[in-house]
Specification:
The protein is α+β, with helices and mostly antiparallel strands and 514 residues long. The protein has 17 helices and ten strands. The chain has a five-stranded antiparallel sheet with strand order 4-3-2-1-5. A three-stranded antiparallel sheet has the order 6-8-7, with helices on one face. Strand 9 and strand 10 form a beta hairpin. 14% of the residues are buried.
Amino acid sequence: MRDEMGYLKILSAVFAVCLSVLTAAPLLGAGASAPADTKEVVAAPPAKEGTQDKSSIAADTSTKAGGTESEPAATTNSKETAPASLAKGGTPDKTTMPTAAKGKGNASSAEKDPVGDLVSDPMGTFSRFCKKLVKDNIRLEEFSFWRIIYFAIGIALTLACSRITRWLVERYGMKLAGKTKTDVDDLTCEALGRPSGLLVFAIGLYISTYPMMKLLSPTLQVVYGRICLALAASSVAWGLYRMVTVVDHVLTKLAAKTDTNLDDLIVAIVRKSLKVTVVLFSVFFIGQNILHLNITTLLAGAGVAGLAVAFAAQDTISNFFGSIMIILDQPFTVGDCVQFSNYKGMVENVGFRSTRIRTFDGHLVSIPNKNVAGADIENISARPFIKRTFNIGLVYDSGIDKIDRAVELLHDIFDKQECMVDDRPPRIVFDSFGDWSLNISATIWWYDKDEDGEVVPPDFGKHMKWVHETNMEILRRFDKEGLEFAFPTNTTYLARDAARAFPALEAGRDEAKR
């Protein structure tokens, strides 16, 4: 019942506003342009017996003698003889003086301003306006009792049909939709329930008030018909607006099947764009084609205002289009570890204006999307593996056998790891002779795998745990084999040290002895 009362309130408000706007201006304009030369004919009071002056007698005599002389001429003669009688000491004519005064009053009343009357007497002006509105636009003499009965029965049937239609769509329709596997039809029935009831109400209202509408003037009949048609079109627009929820539901389910989180942002943009499009198209269509309002001027003004806003909000628009490019290109997703300019951290949010990155120091950095869209971004989380390269240095006193044993131990440690793949086996070689060590280089490609053995994006925390375990294993195996790690040292040999003989020096000594 609350819905039906809401329909009646909406219709009453719309009808009152449209009726006042479309009829007030012509009626006020007609009242303001009333002819000012209307004269009020006032009969002169009869003169008392025995007091008729000479001017009046002369006027009567001239009228009888001529027979065709007009009344205004007599009035002019009486005005011309009035000063003479006053000069002789006679009494002024009581017939002519009030007539002149009334003539001045009529001229002043014809020049009245409607705006001034509205300010001085607002209630009286409004009452006269309403009476004139009813008199000029409603034929009350043709009003009959059967029209009221028709209207009452029609409104009752309209409310009942509106309620039944909504019940059929929402309850019975959803009951049938519950038998299917998809939930799209359930959401469709729920979205179209109330708009379908409003559409039936608009049609029934026009049919119920048709006899009453015939009592209105042709102008008001057209206005009322447009209002009912606009109400029906509004119900259709309302249904389309609620159907956006169904589209949003379908897109959300599709976005949930993807690995990226930027699809959710695309769904939000599509949802808001569809709602704005439905509202703007409905307003322009109803205003231009049904109510016949001048929407072209409004669009021209909106274009100029939009141009000014575009110049004033260049950075905002650039950031918005930057976010569109990020969504379409998808260089990263929410939760990825990226390195941008001097910042390295996890992406927490991608908005319409900026992208927020949480650095490893805990700071939250907001970067405008126009800068993100045009910059070089390193997506660390998108790498399929983590490459690790390290060197192990053995002392120079190590022989060839120990170098071979060290390489063999490293292969034994890394080749058996589950994080290795056949395409990229470990690369372990005797790399170089350093300043204080014999260097063995190892290059490892670490892959992260799930429980089924499938390769997944690497987890940096698991990688660091693996590095710790392998380093401990290398230290334990090398210590067991007696392999000594080198560290930066300098060894100084004396020239006469017997433990370290220099052949060139000894040859020089033998040459000197000879």
